Amino acid sequence: MTQHKVTEGNLDANGLKFAVLVxxxxxxxxxxxxxxxxxxxxxxxxxxxxxxxxxxxxxxxxPVVAAELARQKKHDALIxxxxxxxxxxxxxxxxAGAAAKGIGQVSLHTGIPIAFGVLTTNTLEQAIDRAGAKxxxxxxxxxxxxxxxxxxxxxxxxxx
Length: 160
Ligand code: INI
Description:
CATH architecture: 3-Layer(aba) Sandwich
Distance between the termini: 28 Å
CATH topology: Rossmann fold
CATH superfamily: Lumazine/riboflavin synthase
Number of domains: 1
Bound molecules: 5-nitro-6-ribityl-amino-2,4(1H,3H)-pyrimidinedione
Largest sheet: 4 strands, parallel
Number of strands: 6
Radius of gyration: 16 Å
Helix content: 40-55%
């Protein structure tokens, strides 16, 4: 059987630096996502001094701030947290779409991994479920992705 070389990131956050960007809009939800992300980083060995929290008004503002931080290259990965909850107008689609597309573009163009921890739900209840209730905490999950991706990108870069 062929032995393949496998490259993957581990979940050791010791020595890695993160910025957690969090939208204030729907803060009932986003503060719980932030709690989850911080819990995930700490429990995987990240030091307090290596975590920067950056607050923005809403999910719409996440990409431009992520872009500036990514350009500065002071963090190994960014974690974007927000909660976009569908209302009676098309506003939801614009905000959710722009946040997703913008964050994806920033990550691709800068090479800095950015975990997408922006909830896009039809109801407040669905958001609560994903912010520490029935369906776990998507902030914690985003932190895991950020740690893994930071380690993976380090590994790949170190052999370039
Ligand atoms: N921002 C969110 O993060 N979630 C939302 O559900 C939301 N809605 O529904 O309006 C929202 N709007 C604010 C937006 O992110 C900007 O802060 C605002 O448009 C000013 O630029």
